[in-house]
């Protein structure tokens, strides 16, 4: 690196909130399976502690060595429905509690993988896990859950989605004293990926190595600052600016991730280059879109600007590394982005506009607070809309909806930390009961039949 590149990197770190958002150690639990749930839990605890006991200390050490903050340290595991299905338990909360215990003892921020894969159908274990969600998420602190309800190859499992609508409402009720925080730890996916390091949707895919380290890098402030130096230039020029910036960010993330993996003596997996915002000023994806030229995020042109941003980020990342994976692109969580929060408060952005934006972003309807009296059928219908965006477009989409019990439009939910806060957003009053009660599976789109 020449002197100018070194100075640019220092500025990114000191002034533009560039950081390693997460290192996520993903661990397979397939060899922990036992018909005795207590033995299975003991096996899980022993294996996870063996690999994860030094994760936090190592990540902090490598971060300090290079002067780069590693904000979150996380764990992900094999979807628990695959592990707990060997037992005769009718509630998988004991598995959630052992994951929570490991998270606390190792000092990691979150552990993902209290999950089920129901895209092609719902097994008895999947059903038990979904029914366990309210209890598990209300009695643990650091456990995150996800359910994959559809994919482009198999279509959408509406039966699973109906159950999840009901369980989201029940989880909201059980955690109502915390603004229904439990729902913030549950993601409902279509086309979920196996190497996602970001919560709440991380899990260790069955096609992955036994243990592997994934890294998630973020830098919305860096991209915005780079664009500010190119005001008035055409779209080809700003796309190139974003690509070059993403290239630099990816290189840094690969350096840190590979070093952490080496110290832990585990394989390095993928680097997820995602512009994941925080509630801090100067760390917002919404402000990037406004810098591109959108008056306020949510206004006309927002989807086009987001499409350009997301594509340029991916192009820059794949030029920098052959190990780019995960979700890599731009996230638009409402409560975690100060620009999105402001737009939602002003009524400039709605759930309908957010749904349109998810056609081109990297995740979906993320961290959206809705009225606490929203019917379960309405929640299911919103998630069905979002899932089909992903299924038809052959991309990952997800929903993280939070019906905040006791609050309505005009109120605000406060979650704290990286989860931020969000105004309660209105939902349509139309009744979706007839839609949801049909059940079954929405068939896969015709373009899914490729071999």
Question: Which terms would index this structure?
Answer:
single chain; 451 residues; alpha/beta; Anaerobic Ribonucleotide-triphosphate Reductase Large Chain; 12-stranded mixed sheet; 14 strands; 44% helix
Task: Please describe what this structure looks like.
- With 451 residues, the protein is an alpha/beta fold.
- It has a domain at 19-190: Anaerobic Ribonucleotide-triphosphate Reductase Large Chain.
- The chain has 15 helices and 14 strands.
- The chain has helices at residues 3-15, 37-52, 55-66, 80-84, 93-106, 124-139, 158-174, 220-228, 235-264, 285-292, 302-320, 338-346, 351-357, 376-393, 433-437; strands at 19-27, 70-77, 110-117, 143-151, 155-157, 186-190, 211-218, 268-275, 329-330, 365-371, 397-404, 412-414, 421-423, 441-442.
- The strands form two sheets. Strands 1, 2, 3, 4, 5, 6, 7, 8, 9, 10, 11 and 14 form a twelve-stranded mixed sheet that branches. A two-stranded antiparallel sheet has the order 12-13.
- A hairpin with a 3-residue loop joins β4 and β5 (155-157).
- The termini are far apart.
- The mean pLDDT is 91.
């Amino acid at each position: 690196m020449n002197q100018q590149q070194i100075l640019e990197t220092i500025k990114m770190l000191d002034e533009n909130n560039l950081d390693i958002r997460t290192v996520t150690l993903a661990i397979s639990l397939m060899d922990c399976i036992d018909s005795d749930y207590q033995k299975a839990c003991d096996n899980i605890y022993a294996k996870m502690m063996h690999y994860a006991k030094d994760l936090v200390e190592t990540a902090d050490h490598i971060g300090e060595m290079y002067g780069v903050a590693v904000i979150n340290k996380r764990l992900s595991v094999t979807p628990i429905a695959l592990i707990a299905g060997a037992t005769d338990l009718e509630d998988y909360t004991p598995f959630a509690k052992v994951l929570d215990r490991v998270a606390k003892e190792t000092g990691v921020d979150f552990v993902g993988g209290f999950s089920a894969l129901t895209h092609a159908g719902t097994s008895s274990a999947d059903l038990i896990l979904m029914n366990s969600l309210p209890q598990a998420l209300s009695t643990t602190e650091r456990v995150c859950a996800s359910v994959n309800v559809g994919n482009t190859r198999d279509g959408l499992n509406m039966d699973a989605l109906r159950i999840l609508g009901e369980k989201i409402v029940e989880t909201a009720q059980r955690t109502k004293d915390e603004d229904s925080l439990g729902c913030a730890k549950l993601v409902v996916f279509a086309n979920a990926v196996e190497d996602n390091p970001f919560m709440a949707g991380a899990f260790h895919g069955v096609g992955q190595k036994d243990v592997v380290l994934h890294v998630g890098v973020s830098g919305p402030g860096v991209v915005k600052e780079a664009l500010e130096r190119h005001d008035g230039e055409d779209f080809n020029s700003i796309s190139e600016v974003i690509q070059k910036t993403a290239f630099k960010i990816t290189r840094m993330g690969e350096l840190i991730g590979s070093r952490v993996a080496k110290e832990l003596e585990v394989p390095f997996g993928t680097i997820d280059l995602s512009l994941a915002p925080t509630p801090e000023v100067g760390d917002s994806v919404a402000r990037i879109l406004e810098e591109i030229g959108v008056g306020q995020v949510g206004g006309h042109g927002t989807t086009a600007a987001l499409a350009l941003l997301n594509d340029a980020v991916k192009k820059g990342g794949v030029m920098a590394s052959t190990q780019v994976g995960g979700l890599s692109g731009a996230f638009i969580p409402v409560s975690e982005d100060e620009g999105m929060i402001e737009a939602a408060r002003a009524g400039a952005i709605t759930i309908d506009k957010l749904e349109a934006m998810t056609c081109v972003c990297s995740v979906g309807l993320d961290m959206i607070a809705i009225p606490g009296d929203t019917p379960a059928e309405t929640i299911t219908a919103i998630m069905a809309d979002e899932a089909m965006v992903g299924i038809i477009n052959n991309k990952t989409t997800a929903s993280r909806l939070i019906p905040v019990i006791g609050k309505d439009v005009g109120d605000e939910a406060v979650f704290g930390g990286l989860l931020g806060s969000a105004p309660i957003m209105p939902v349509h009053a139309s009744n979706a009961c007839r839609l949801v009660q049909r059940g079954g599976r929405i068939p896969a789109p015709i373009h899914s039949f490729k071999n």
